[in-house]
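hiii so my PI (J.) wants the whole complex modelled not just the main chain, which honestly fair. so below is everything: two entries, each one labled with what it is. i double checked the lines twice but i was tired so who knows lol
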Amino acid sequence: MTIYRVLAVATALLATGCAPETMDLEAERSALREAAASYHAAATAKNVQQVVALYDETALMVPPNSDLVEGLEGVGNYRFGFIETEGVELSFEILRAEVAQSGDMGWTISLGQITINRPEGPPGRDLVRDFHTWKKQPDGSWKVVVDMWNSGLPAGG
Amino acid sequence: MTIYRVLAVATALLATGCAPETMDLEAERSALREAAASYHAAATAKNVQQVVALYDETALMVPPNSDLVEGLEGVGNYRFGFIETEGVELSFEILRAEVAQSGDMGWTISLGQITINRPEGPPGRDLVRDFHTWKKQPDGSWKVVVDMWNSGLPAGG
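here's the output for the full assembly
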């Protein structure tokens, strides 16, 4: 092995070994969208345990016109409107989703069409905007760390 | 120069050149909190230009009970309540702030005490929760990419 051969190997090692860490951002973004879709599926199915399981230990929930809900225990005790209100049907779409270059933080914003079926008369409707920041967990899953929402319909409508 | 010397140099290069990029997360978190504090100062001073200058080109604003506001142009045309409403006084505190490991994304959640001074009678009050995700710009500054807020007081209160 000549010095030139050693240098060639060292150069090759430097070229590959020092390339910026290859985070497959497209895959991360897909994983985040899948996590958001799981949240929507769990809410649509009114499976509160599955919904709660998607929150981070340090979660902060900010319901409109109500106090802050802090930590996973707080989220576990929270009375979700879509569970508590009779006759609710949900339908969500993800509006935008972004992931940090490091793949440890992301956010999603989703639109939720809410229909409230009543025994008589026309159904009630609401349009909710769900804004979530997500934190990648040690096991690679994504969990919600901040959850705020509000309505797109006029107040008192 | 022996082969061993070349290998030693190559090893040293590999060791330093391949160390993970050192991102000073504490400094990034401080910079993000300073950006949030600038936002609060601009809003408190009712300097709408300074407020608008803190939004990203792709900003999405989600006011309660109102349509989505999209892009920097949309934000520039938005009629901020704290400007439009006479007699408003604002006071903010940052509740939590986090930055991604890569330092390109962050979020803040702040509490805003709103006092609405009126010519007669007691002042009106509101408690707003401001939830911002931020995007690091090419020049190193932080700008708001999603802005949602809601009130912590009972609806119609």
